[in-house]
Amino acid sequence: MAREIERRFLVRDVRILDGRRGEHIIQGYLAKEVGSMSTRVRIRGERAYLTLKSPKLGFSRDEFEYPIPVDDAHQMIVRHCAGRVVRKTRYLVDHAHHVFEVDVFQGHHAGLVVAEVELPHEETPLSLPHWVGDEITHDSRYGNFTLAEQAALLHAAPNGTHAAPTPVLVASRGLPAAH
């Protein structure tokens, strides 16, 4: 078991990604009940993983991750995620002895750009780069599971209409809005 300690931020200046190569990620959520672990399947390039994550306690949570065959991951996403899928491109950006994972979302969440950084301890000092905006670590609207549920609602709303998702604030030209 690993302990995941991360902080998440909106990205206010996407120019930091200019010239960088990212990795395409497709992730779907098989299950999540209030107060229990989420079960996620992720395809990242030519690799796939099944991940279980506990609810957050502060900045931390338990995380169990296991490699699985890519074909199995595809089948799980198509057959068992009920449309709860997010697609994004991830870029790695070094800053002050930390690696920020910057996710540029696609599809229904195009324009949303989020940076997360994993830390060894909750008390680890963190120097924030100039391109980072508001912290969203504890804002559930920006959680990947919430975004995946929104995508499912928008993709297959009952009676053919679009359901109204929880709002995610996104400004024009790919820059997240401050709130």
TrEMBL record:
InterPro entries: CYTH-like_dom_sf, CYTH_domain, NeuTTM/CthTTM-like
CDD domains hit by this protein: CYTH-like_CthTTM-like_1 (cd07891)
SUPFAM superfamilies in alphabetical order: CYTH-like phosphatases
SMART domains xrefs: CYTH (SM01118)
Signal peptide: none
Every CYTH domain range: 2-149
Tree of life domain: Bacteria
Active site: Y29
Name the UniProt record assigns to this protein: Adenylate cyclase
Organism: Thauera phenylacetica B4P
